[in-house]
């Protein structure tokens, strides 16, 4: 049996390479780099535990780091070796709609054994990430995500450029991914929260010198957890949110990061030699170091931290003539929602929960047939988001960043995901720049799966 298979495989690869040699001109041989979604194993827990089985791009978690220069094209062939369909969404990037990776809207899900080639040129520098956008509550929880960095033409002068991928795993006693991806209690409350907050530093940190300057790119890839992060023995500024530079860097205080959000900081090591500089996570039962950087040696302290070079992304100057559309966020436990429309039918809250649904936008659960709004390319629109629920939500717009319209009429930083506290009302605005169908959803992926999804149509 095995012999037979080996012969067949050998023969098959021989035929393929013979054909390539005769038919293809030399220049066409360079193959498209692949990302293979497949099962794998990683070491999450200390050695006395077994490794954790994951689903990852190339079997790794995080998946391979993708790093481009601004203006450089990205091409990756997604190959699916998972037992279920999948796709890749390039989170936070401006790209053609067909490359957005949303099954059922911009492409078909890639079936087991199938592939799909993504190709586009990101116009903006910054810290981004990519993740599965199919059954993402399960697939992102199992590890289907990776880091995507677009380097500025003139990056800031730092000694170390470190990306910290922050995840929240729900592990069983024996170190396995807990396979309870659809518990109604999670979906109707704060989502599927884990029991093990874990940071992966890319590249790995060895030691840092006192006064060394670091660029830290924090990415919250958790499906549902809001992280509260603080830096100890590190002092500096926030220079970007969600990949987009702040025109004026801010002093970090308490860093709350909703799922999918990124924060870029430039910081100097102030911890003394022999100590550790730390990234810490604030949790219910205390503050835990999730990254420890031992300090060894020292250098001279640098000066001012300048802003990053700005991106070509549009920034708002006025919303005077902009159309405003309301988005009422409803449902969940302890919410006032009594009934809502699901696939054209009116359902009571009990009926919704039986179907694994719990949340609504403007009285509709899940993707409505009609978009929340239609805009023409170049039109500026506002969405007034009213959080009429008892939970926080991380509202994410695909395809471009938006800005919050603040009380005094000024605009907040460019973001692609806005963390909203319970009972809050926040208005976002943006110039609809790219034609296509773009999702707007809660990035607490359990909430998205249980109804918090809508879309915009830009023509
Ligand atoms: Cu990062 Cu629709 O997602
Ligand atoms: Cu939510």
Automatic annotation (TrEMBL):
Keywords: Copper, Metal-binding, Oxidoreductase, Signal. GO terms for molecular function: copper ion binding; ferroxidase activity. Residues 1-30 form the signal peptide. Residues 45-153, 201-274, 349-456 form the Plastocyanin-like domain. The keyword Signal applies. It is an enzyme of class 1 (oxidoreductase). InterPro entries: Cu-oxidase-like_N (IPR011707), Cu-oxidase_2nd (IPR001117), Cu-oxidase_C (IPR011706), Cu-oxidase_fam (IPR045087), Cu_oxidase_Cu_BS (IPR002355), Cupredoxin (IPR008972), TAT_signal (IPR006311). The gene is mmcO_2. This is Multicopper oxidase MmcO. It comes from Falsiruegeria mediterranea M17. The keyword Transmembrane helix does not apply. Its EC number is 1.16.3.1. PROSITE patterns: MULTICOPPER_OXIDASE2, TAT.
């Amino acid at each position: 049996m095995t012999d037979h298979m080996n012969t067949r495989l050998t023969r098959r690869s021989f035929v393929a390479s013979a054909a390539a040699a005769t038919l293809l001109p030399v220049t066409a041989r360079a193959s498209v780099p692949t990302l293979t979604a497949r099962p794998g194993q990683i070491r999450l827990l200390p050695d006395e535990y077994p490794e954790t089985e994951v689903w990852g791009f190339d079997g790794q978690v995080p998946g391979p780091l993708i790093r481009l220069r601004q203006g450089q094209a990205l091409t990756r062939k997604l190959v699916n070796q998972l037992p279920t369909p999948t796709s890749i969404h390039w989170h936070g990037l401006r790209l053609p709609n067909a490359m957005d990776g949303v099954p059922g809207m911009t492409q078909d899900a890639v079936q087991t054994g199938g592939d799909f080639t993504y190709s586009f040129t990101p116009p903006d520098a910054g810290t981004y990430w990519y993740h599965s956008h199919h059954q993402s509550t399960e697939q992102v929880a199992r590890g289907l995500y990776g880091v995507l960095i677009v380097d500025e033409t003139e990056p800031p002068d730092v000694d170390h450029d470190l990306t910290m991928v922050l995840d929240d795993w729900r592990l069983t006693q024996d170190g396995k991914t807990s396979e309870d991806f659809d518990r109604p209690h999670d979906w109707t409350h704060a989502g599927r929260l884990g029991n093990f907050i874990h940071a992966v530093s890319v590249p790995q940190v060895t030691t840092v010198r006192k006064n060394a300057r670091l660029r830290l790119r924090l990415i919250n890839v958790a499906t549902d957890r809001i992280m509260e992060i603080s830096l100890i023995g590190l002092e500096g500024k926030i220079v970007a949110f969600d990949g987009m530079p702040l025109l004026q860097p801010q002093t970090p205080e308490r860093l709350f990061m909703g799922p999918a959000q990124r924060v870029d900081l430039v910081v100097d090591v102030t911890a003394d030699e022999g100590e550790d500089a730390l990234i810490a996570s604030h949790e219910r039962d205390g503050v835990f170091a999730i990254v420890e950087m031992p300090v060894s040696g020292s250098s001279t302290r640098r000066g001012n931290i300048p802003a990053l070079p700005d991106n070509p992304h549009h920034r708002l100057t006025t919303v005077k003539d902009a159309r405003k559309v309301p988005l009422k966020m409803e449902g969940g436990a302890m919410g006032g929602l009594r009934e809502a429309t699901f696939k054209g039918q009116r359902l009571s809250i009990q009926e919704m929960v039986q179907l694994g649904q719990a949340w609504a936008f403007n009285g509709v659960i899940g993707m409505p047939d009609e978009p929340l709004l239609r805009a023409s390319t170049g039109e500026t629109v506002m969405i007034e988001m009213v959080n009429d629920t008892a939970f926080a939500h991380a509202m994410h717009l695909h395809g471009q960043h938006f800005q919050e319209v603040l009380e005094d009429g000024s605009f907040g930083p460019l973001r692609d995901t806005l963390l909203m506290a319970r009972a809050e009302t926040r208005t976002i605005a943006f110039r609809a720049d790219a034609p296509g169908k773009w999702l707007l959803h809660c990035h607490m992926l359990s909430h998205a799966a249980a109804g918090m999804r809508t879309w915009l149509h830009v023509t």
